[in-house]
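Hey team,

Filing this mostly as a record. A colleague (T.K.) asked me to run one chain through the structure pipeline before their review meeting, and I want the input and output archived in the tracker in case anyone asks later how it was produced. No errors, nothing strange. Just documentation.

Input sequence:
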Amino acid sequence: MPGKDQAAATTVFETKGVTKVYHMGEVSVHALRGIDVQFYEGEIVVLLGRSGSGKSTLLNILGGLDVPTAGEVLYRGQDMSSFSENELTWYRREHVGFVFQFYNLIPSLTARENVELVTEIAADPLKSVDALDIVGLVDRVDHFPSQMSGGEQQRVAIARAIAKQPDVLLCDEPTGALDLNTGTLVLEALESVNRNLGTTTALITHNSVISDMAHRVISLSDGMIESVVSNETRKSAKELNW
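Output structure:
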């Protein structure tokens, strides 16, 4: 796996000296301070750290939702700073799946229809039912969000994100609003995506227990990388307890 043999792994993302400064009036907030890190094909990476450590800023830059103030971000060797707005839009649409803490499902659409919002515009999509099957919801395809639990809605959001078969899946606190049992089902869905599709997955959390399921754990503090640790032995989502 990438964590064990990084020299042989294909690099999906590489950041070089990435810095992000937000200017709020006369105040400058340094969200990232010279980040150097790689993400490898087919791995699950947990980004760990307290609120304000820079996790979401880094994820948003990788996803093309934000741009660095300084430094380079390479996606499969391509410098993302050279992308035009149209190229960034194409990159987000074709290559990146996003999962956030809140599900952002359309209440008037069924699970199948929420997923089809993506499959109708993707170049090589999964069938909506197949995407829902990967996250364990094949029996809920015709249910509306109001008829599903929070964990089920989050798994629909994951199915929607993976239906276009993205190269990378970027998840920002996907279990943040969920209890242990429901959160475990969501993490099992992410495991299933990684196992079945080989999708490189980056998962933000402040919950250190979740790091046990990752190939690698990148800890951030005050906009800097504190440590990068490879897990020689990983736990499955159902083995986690918090």
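Quick notes for T.K.: Helices lie at 55-62, 85-95, 111-119, 128-134, 150-162, 180-197. DSSP finds six helices and ten strands in the chain.
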